[in-house]
Amino acid sequence: MNDSPPSFRVMVGLGNPGPEYDGTYHNAGALAVDFWAKEAGVTLKKQGRESWAQAKTGPLLLAKPVAFMNVSGPVVHKLLRAIQAAPADLLLVHDDSDLPLGEWRLVFGRGAAGHHGVESVIAALRTKDFWRLRLGIRHGRGKAGEFVLRKMTAANRKKFYLGLKEVTEKVMENTNP
């Protein structure tokens, strides 16, 4: 584990593109980036013909791959190359069905734990030495495959965003840009 304080230049939120995936549990990473962009008063815009939407907010770049989550690794790799950032400069934000809804964990250098989007990023970067923000989406006892692509209920959406506010206060404001 990296014992130094978090320091990242780019935050990438994983999700699936398209209106049918908007507001689903699996799109937690993309929802988080949208939330932080709104809080910062910036709009994510597709960059030319590139495969990501991004917005600059202070020293950080917020980005979302415009690619399906499970094949987002090459897009993340291309983005890091384009901005001349190392994998350790990355904060990958994604859903985690092992954590209860509204909870989160900031980790460095860990394996994918079965998350195919994270596996894609690790394979493309050829390292797991980057920051990850695991956003809990677990609610109830069902299997992850049974609920990750469902839309969040209003009550669960509220709980999710309360967790994001906590992340913003405790993690994002204490980074070393």
List the helices and strands and how they pair.
Layout: E1 10-13, H1 28-40, E2 45-46, E3 52-57, E4 60-65, H2 73-82, E5 90-100, E6 104-108, H3 116-125, E7 131-138, H4 144-147, H5 154-170
Parallel strand pairs: 1-4, 1-5, 5-7
Antiparallel strand pairs: 2-3, 3-4, 6-7
In words, what does this structure look like?
The chain is an alpha/beta fold. The chain has a single domain (10-171), classed as Rossmann fold. It is 31% helix and 24% strand. It has five helices and seven strands. The chain has helices at residues 28-40, 73-82, 116-125, 144-147, 154-170; strands at residues 10-13, 45-46, 52-57, 60-65, 90-100, 104-108, 131-138. α1 (28-40) crosses α5 (154-170) and α2 (73-82) packs across α3 (116-125). The chain is globular and about 40 Å long. The two termini are 19 Å apart. The model has no long low-confidence stretch (mean pLDDT 86).
| Order of strands across the main sheet | 2-3-4-1-5-7-6
Under the CATH scheme, which architecture would be assigned?
3-Layer(aba) Sandwich
CATH homologous superfamily assignment: Peptidyl-tRNA hydrolase
Q: Would you identify the regions where 5 or more consecutive residues have pLDDT less than 50?
A: none
Classify the beta-strand content into a percent band: 15-25%
- Helix and strand pattern: EHEEEHEEHEHH
CATH fold name: Rossmann fold
The total count of helices amounts to 5
The tally of strands reads 7
